[in-house]
Amino acid sequence: MTLAMAGQDWNAIDAYDVQSLEALFERDEGRLSAFSLELGGLYFDWSKTHLDAGLLERFVAIAESKDFAAARDSLFAGEIVNPTEGRPAEHVAERGTGAPDAVELASGRRGRMRALVDAIEAGAFGDITGVLHIGIGGSVLGPALLVDALGRNGSRAEVRFLSNIDGAAFDDAVSTLDPETTLIVAASKTFTTAETMSNLNAAIAWLRAGGVDDPFGKVIAVTARPEAAVEAGVDETRILQFSEGVGGRYSLWSAVGLSAALALGWSSFEELLEGAAEMDRHFRYAEPANNAPLVSAFIDRLYVRKFECQTRAAFAYDERLRLLPFYLQQLEMESNGKSVKLDGSPIGQPSAPVTWGGTGTDAQHAVFQLLHQGTVLVPVEFLGVTEAEDSLPPDHHRQLLLNAFAQGAALMRGRKSDDPHRSYPGNRPSTTILLDRLDARTLGALIAFYEHRTFANAILLDINPFDQFGVELGKEIARKLDESADDESFDPSTRTLIERAGL
Fold it and tell me: Is 244 a catalytic residue?
């Protein structure tokens, strides 16, 4: 069965006669206003994509056939939207827009989190000059993004992040920290994650070797299973809990954001939540054709399905957003990198593309050759910030943004030449997201936008974006290898590699 036959509701997309980007602008003088949106300090420009009014109408019909509105309502009502694990997805409750009972519980936990932040700032843990945040995946990517983006102008404490089990990563993370004035924040949903527990044990040893008599007295655990943290040696008074319904890659809004709150201040953390809540309200109530996350999901589906694009790229033309592509990699590929539907049947069409990207003009001199003249079509997303907050004259930031805008124009227009080596085909799509300024509120709205876009894609695909069983098999085999490296059930290549490494 071909992909076009996988579902009758997609036939209208498969058969649609898509016009070139320049033709779309030529035939519709109002194209920019029709395919752009301003919301919460963010401006979305989709006009340089191949989406047009006819396609948008067909995509809205598909969303209706997938009962999108009901699925969205279920998310905010706290119903089971993660059926393989029997859980709701309660990250929206962390910003006050979910089910009332979940919002109330989240509010209580946030009150405990704030009390702990106040106690730390008041000296309850002694003189704290640095924080070592230990986690992996969503337990570290979100807080790291927040601190790197917002903490450059006067962070209240130096926060170092440790996720990789590599000893070199540990040495680098603690290289600028003083054991006697460092607080350890260990974030793990289950508090059994192998990498996190190994790094926590190493950090405890580092504190002890640095003269700290009671190293566990300087450890705060953030987990959905406080009993596991107690068993690991953390006192219950230094444990912050979050809900089992908050997935790791959706968890920065919860107590997992403790390190960010310590670095940025509590008011900034609250602004982050309110920015996300504003995007929640937009996603929940806006009509499909004017719903930023849903329209972006339509564009994603257009390029993955009809244009058969296997990747999409995000380029941040602002150094403060340099970690965003890495954050999106986990959010999008761990959520929607699936091959079966909710009922377990084959999906029958491409799901999530490979998400990748880079930073500003650095990327122009590294990968844009392929984007402009290569044989692989890659939808590109440009992110920029209108207001600069650096020490250089305004023209410096002006040149940065002009580079971003020029790349989008060049991808669309191309340029014909008698010399094939200097010919650009053009008709290559891009989206631009422009933030008025980069602060906690706009960053919260931006991250929530990507969360809802990911969810919208999943509904269109009829998959579960909230489980991640694909990460388990490799870990299971690693445990078996640790227990019995010479097990004959393993392939000869794996056994030889272990032998050569002296393991």
Answer: no
